[in-house]
Structures are given as structure tokens and as C-alpha cells.
Amino acid sequence: MSECTHASHRELVNNTRENMPELDTMFELADFFKVFSDSTRIRIMSALFQGELSVCCIAEILNMEQSTISHQLRILRRENLVKVRKDGKQSYYSLADDHIRQIFEMGLEHISE
Amino acid sequence: MSECTHASHRELVNNTRENMPELDTMFELADFFKVFSDSTRIRIMSALFQGELSVCCIAEILNMEQSTISHQLRILRRENLVKVRKDGKQSYYSLADDHIRQIFEMGLEHISE
DNA sequence: TGAACATATGAACAATCATTCATACGTTAT
DNA sequence: ATAACGTATGAATGATTGTTCATATGTTCA
Question: Would the CB atoms of B47 and A20 count as touching at under 8 Å?
């Protein structure tokens, strides 16, 4: 246990704490970015930028198992990032939000440095 | 193995693939967001928005072990999101990038819905 | 030089999470 | 009704990762 017993230490700690976002907000923020932290989900969203796609189409585009895609789509659905349209045997998925493009571009911007 | 043997199926698959970002880029994108996907790191960055802080200060602000903070700072350092200034026994960390604020705000924007 | 402090880091552990396998559910066509 | 197809999902598994403990490194002060 370090003490850091400097002069204005306690004050700095309190001040910083007060100016930080709510604890809940920071947890939500982490959870939000967690959705974007998996390459399979990134690839799914990248594919959906082109327009709506059925599950098996996505699976073939990414060259991955249908089951894997379904599981990840479930997460994207839970976070309201994609929406589904059912037509016969197929489920067509599309992006639910225009924010996603912005978030992608911001990430890409940071990467290219 | 599902087939999805529709008319323009193969064409759609190829078209979508071609218009997607490079595979490497999508992996990098996921890795980038992974840094923001942990609540401890989010809290550290939130604290650093107020200005530079020593390791033990951050630990006390978050009420977590010094070791935990050091480990997470290591990750933030590796991703070039924070920079260090050593002064005597202490290491003072600060945000390395103004992008971070934008990324935070974009996330917060999406959350509040 | 030795003690106290601030930080960094390796190893162990626990928890989380993505993928796979098997299978169930719902729809279409014969 | 049965078969074939598309999708969803629970359980098991393997890999990744955050935290803790112990300890090493480096600095300051007596």
C-alpha cells in the first residue's frame, strides 16, 4: 500500500474524482466498446455496410461457421447495433444505426498513424 | 453446411468481400477498440482527462491496487494512448492523444439513448 | 550504506468469451 | 406428412485477459 502523502494529495484525489463521469457511465462505456473489440463482429458490421445480408451469406463472406455468425449477431442484436427482417426461411440483418459508421471511421483514423 | 444457393448469391458474396476493408485493417480495428473495452482502463483515462497523475494517485482515485493500475497503464502505453514523465521516484502519466476525447464522446453519445 | 518509498513485472488464478458441436425450431416444397 | 433448408441456441472447450501476490528495480533521504 503506497501512501503518496504529498501536500495537496488528498485534494487532488477528491477533485479528480468529482470531475470524472459517473461510475455507471464508465462501465457502460466499456461495455459499449467491448462490442467493437472482436474481429468477427467488426467483419460482420463491415459486410453490413454494403446493405442487408442473410446469415448464411455473412457466414460465407467471412468463411466462418453459420453458428458462429448467429452467436455474434445475437450480441449485436442485444446491443441494438443490427436489426433483423425475417422473410421465409431467411433472416436478413442490417445495421441499426448510423453512429456505427462514425465510430468505425474514428477508429480507422487513429489506426493510420 | 448451408448452401444458400440463390441466383445472384455468389456475385453478392464476391461484391461484398471486395468492398470490405482489408482483413488486417479489420483486425487492427478490433484490437484498437479492445483497449477501450475494459472499465479500469476507461476509468484511468477518465482520470487523466483532468491532467497528469502519478501511478499511486490513480490507484487511490480508483480505489484499486497499484499493481493493477501499473499493468493497465502498460497496455495503454503499448497502444500509445498515454505517455510517461519520470520525476524522481514517481511516474506521471498523461493522455498522449486528443483523439481519445472524441472517441469517449462518441461512445457517450451512443449510450445516452 | 541502509531504509523507505514508487513503480514495474512475472507467475498464478479466476473469470470472461469466442468457437464448435449437436440439436431444436420454423419455413418451404414435394 | 416428410424432407430439405435456414436459423437459433445450449453445453462444452480452449483461449484470452484482468487481478492479485510476491518480488525486483530504481530513487530519495537519513
Answer: yes
Where do the domains of chain B lie, and which CATH numbers do they carry?
Answer: 7-112 (1.10.10.10)
Q: Taking the complete model, does pTM exceed 0.85, yes or no?
A: yes
| Average pLDDT over every residue of A78-88 | 94
Q: List bases, strand D, within 7 Å of protein CB.
A: 5-11, 17-23, 26-28
Cell 422473410: give the residue.
Answer: A87
Query: Which residue in A46, A99, A110 has the most chain B C-beta atoms within 10 A of its own C-beta, making it the best mutation to test that interface?
Result: A110
Q: Which residue of B has its CA nearest to A55?
A: B4
Report the distance separating Cα A13 and Cα A20, nearest Å: 11
In this structure, chain B runs to a length of 113
Q: Summarize the confidence of residues B51-56 as an average pLDDT.
A: 95
Tell me if B111 and A9 make a contact (CB, 8 A cut-off). Answer: no
Q: B4 pLDDT band (50/70/90 cuts)?
A: low
Q: At what angle do helices B55-62 and B66-78 cross, to 10 degrees?
A: 120
